[in-house]
């Protein structure tokens, strides 16, 4: 069933523009999305799994004043989706959603009893044995940190690369939900790209962008949030 809140994917004006993230000074701020969390939410709310969990686990306990009664499995939404409180997927990025601060970018969580200073995916806690040789422990720690840093940076960079395409990715997801064929999507989104035999370049572009859109929708939106957290702390965000 197509959510009735989805915008018309053929109407570019119904979508926020990606340049607000790519170059904050290139256009006036788009009031529909004020920060990276808003972009992450735009992808999460299009997740069929999230929509299902909202309808079955949260909506029955949702009051008219947009508050929850008893029985909502808040922890499930935090652990499964990294969002602090479940939000009606019909609501757009104007809700300014909050994500749990101890959410790791790959979906794992730091234990609740960790020191608050470590409750950040850009930090790591390692344990050393003082009665064991330090040199070998330090070398293993170095290799581990380098491997996790490269993986994390790569995924953050992947999530934030081509931010100008984020609106296109949303439109492709909505077109897919509406049952549009690749030819139709290609014609609407990439009218200047040839779509002729044998390459069908425009339709191939749709397939490539749809894979990227699925990755963001199905979990990599977390890396958008991760990037914002690192930016707020003054760390590098590639």
Question: What do you see in this structure?
Answer:
This protein has 238 residues and is an all-alpha fold. It has one domain (12-232). It has 8 helices and no strands. It has helices at residues 19-22, 36-44, 48-58, 74-81, 134-160, 166-177, 182-189, 201-232. α2 packs across α8. The chain is flat and about 65 Å long. Residues 19-29, 104-120 and 232-238 have low confidence and may be disordered.
Given helix and strand content, the structural type is mainly alpha
Average pLDDT over all residues: 75
Series of H and E elements: HHHHHHHH
In whole angstroms, the N-to-C terminal distance is: 38 Å
**Approximate helicity band:** 40-55%
The number of helical segments is 8
The overall strand count is 0
Q: What percentage of the residues does DSSP assign to strands (E)?
A: under 5%
Shape: flat
Number of domains: 1
Topology, please?
Blueprint: H1 19-22, H2 36-44, H3 48-58, H4 74-81, H5 134-160, H6 166-177, H7 182-189, H8 201-232
Helix pairs in contact: 2-8, 5-8, 6-8, 7-8
Features:
mainly alpha, 238 residues, 8 helices, 47% helix
Concise account of the structure shown:
The chain is built from eight helices and no strands. It is an all-alpha fold and 238 residues long.
